Amino acid sequence: MKNILSENMQRFGTKNLTESNVQKLNEDVYEELKADPSPANVAKVIYNAKGMFNDSEAHVVAALQACKTYADWSAAAKVFQSLYGKTIIMYMAGFLTSNDLFNKQHAGSTAGEELERLYGSSYEEQVGKYFKRQSSVRHEFDRAKNMASWRTQAQQNNTKSGY
Fold first, then answer.
1. Which of 29, 52, 133, 148 would suit a FRET pair with 45, their CA atoms being 20 to 30 Å apart?
2. Per-residue pLDDT reduced to its tens digit, 28-70
3. d(CA 78, CA 69)
4. What digits encode the pLDDT tens for the residues 118-142?
5. At how many degrees (to 10) do helices 70-84 and 39-49 cross?
6. What is the value of pTM for the model shown?
7. What is the Cα–Cα distance from 106 to 126, expressed in whole angstroms?
8. Distance of alpha carbon 131 from its chain centroid, rounded?
9. Smallest Cα–Cα separation from 29: which of 5, 51, 12, 46?
């Protein structure tokens, strides 16, 4: 049974969403995908995994696990492209970090492990490079943000000291 309020609370990072509610939401997504592992449903779950403040790596893992073969995943990717106008890998690279891919386990697996299972030996060429590039772009962005923060702090310190 869907719980729209809890879903939105998780998506927007509401503080009073209990761990049991989060677990229930994840179980609901797994059950929904077990009942209907269609490419359209997989695409929808991945699209909805990106939240305003909180992303749900667990939902990405669930969607990837619903794809038993590369053909299933490819069909979901085509549906995703037609529904949302972007590639599924680039969309996921926009909100999943390299850390999210391999360190956040759910149901005994990570999103990275599931992608490696689906892509096999072509993982690095077809998928890995996007997450590496995304990671380096984020690093540069964080570096620029820190530099701006340091400049502002230095300017404030100069103003306080009278120089």
1. 133
2. 767 788 888 899 999 999 998 887 777 778 888 989 999 999 9
3. 15
4. 999 888 888 887 776 554 444 555 5
5. 60
6. 0.66
7. 23
8. 11
9. 46
